């Protein structure tokens, strides 16, 4: 039976009286951004009182008063891609400790959906955006930048825009992959590139061409994938095989493209690594469970997210701070998918 006269919700004043402090002190204690301004013992006493009373802060009223919402938008291109959960966790770990909450939206790599999702985030008055969807030419991000929206790019960059960005050291990773394969004595190394409309795709493809040229190998065995996907990786490898290209090793633009190679190996009766070695990029979870386990370039995705969040908090606290780009180190993880031709 419903109580016809429910008790009114406890107020901040009720919490302050229960804790024996001024209302302003209680407010500071309950806000992670201002808690350090009072003693730890006072903060604990206020939080115990709030918990005992069942007090819930009115974030809407607070945001109206301070013009700050304590929220940030995270724009992801494809939540089904396993590289993004650790990035999300890294973002959350830093923002939550700073008193912020994260709204996560998925664009499915669709420009109209992206625009709608970002408009939705802005209607919620987010204080900034962390964007993982950037293309080299990205009119929407350019427009947002001109409107003064605080943004940090993660894993990608936009040309000639000067936005803060955190990426892995893609060029170094691709060069390490090529050197590893060259040491195995291949007859040719092919590259299955991600979309060249993205900075990630372009930087990695350029690094591959430079690396094979430095070793005196051909740079002509390159096929661009329309998407960073398993199906596109399979289609690219089929195209190389169908035109009679000669190679015994493949560098894939990312791990999903490399998984597409595994599909084609099974279709065509090819042995990996005996007939063709393959290297991925990102070190997604469970690659060591494949047969053979996939050699790949490991990117510190959790730290990528954490650094992007720290960078955005810096932008929020100091809007005039000059934009900077941070490159995080990557490493080659050698597993069973690479070996000298004919081995295995």
UniProtKB/TrEMBL annotation:
User: PROSITE patterns, from UniProt?
Assistant: HTH_LACI_2 (PS50932)
Q: Where is the HTH lacI-type domain?
A: 10-66
Tell me yes or no: is Ligase among this UniProt entry's keywords.
no
Q: Which UniProt keywords apply?
A: DNA-binding, Transcription, Transcription regulation
According to UniProt, the name of this protein is LacI family transcriptional regulator
Q: Which organism is it from?
A: Nonomuraea rubra
Q: Which domain of life is it from?
A: Bacteria
CDD domains of this UniProt entry?
HTH_LacI, PBP1_LacI_sugar_binding-like
Give one GO molecular function term.
transcription cis-regulatory region binding
């Amino acid at each position: 039976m419903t109580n016809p006269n429910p008790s009114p919700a406890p107020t901040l004043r009720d919490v302050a009286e229960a804790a024996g402090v001024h209302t302003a002190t209680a407010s500071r204690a309950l806000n992670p951004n201002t808690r350090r301004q009072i003693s730890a013992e006072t903060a604990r006493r206020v939080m115990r009182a709030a918990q005992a009373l069942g007090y819930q802060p009115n974030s809407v009223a607070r945001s109206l008063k301070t013009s700050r919402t304590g929220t940030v938008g995270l724009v992801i291109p494809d939540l089904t891609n396993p590289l993004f959960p650790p990035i999300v966790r890294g973002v959350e770990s830093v923002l939550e400790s700073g008193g912020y909450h994260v709204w996560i939206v998925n664009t499915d790599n669709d420009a109209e959906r992206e625009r709608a999702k970002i408009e939705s985030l802005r209607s919620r008055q987010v204080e900034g955006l962390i964007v993982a969807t950037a293309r080299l030419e990205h009119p929407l991000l350019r427009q947002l930048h001109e409107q003064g929206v605080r943004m940090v790019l993660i894993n990608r960059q936009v040309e000639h825009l000067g936005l803060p960005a955190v990426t892995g050291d893609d060029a170094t990773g691709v060069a390490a992959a090529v050197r590893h394969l060259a040491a195995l004595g291949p007859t040719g190394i092919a590259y299955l590139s991600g979309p060249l409309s993205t900075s990630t795709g372009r930087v990695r493809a350029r690094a591959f061409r430079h690396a094979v040229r430095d070793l005196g190998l051909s740079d002509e065995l390159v096929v661009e994938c329309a998407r960073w996907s398993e199906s596109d990786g399979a289609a690219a490898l089929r195209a190389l095989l169908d035109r009679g290209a000669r190679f015994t090793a493949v560098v894939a633009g990312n791990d999903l493209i490399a998984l597409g190679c595994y599909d084609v190996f099974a279709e065509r009766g090819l042995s990996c690594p005996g007939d063709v070695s393959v290297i991925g990029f990102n070190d997604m979870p469970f690659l060591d469970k494949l047969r053979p386990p996939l050699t790949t370039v490991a990117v510190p995705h959790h730290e990528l997210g954490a650094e992007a969040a720290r960078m955005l908090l810096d932008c929020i606290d100091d809007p005039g701070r000059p934009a900077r780009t941070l490159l995080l180190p990557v490493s080659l993880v050698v597993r069973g998918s690479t070996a000298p031709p004919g081995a295995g």
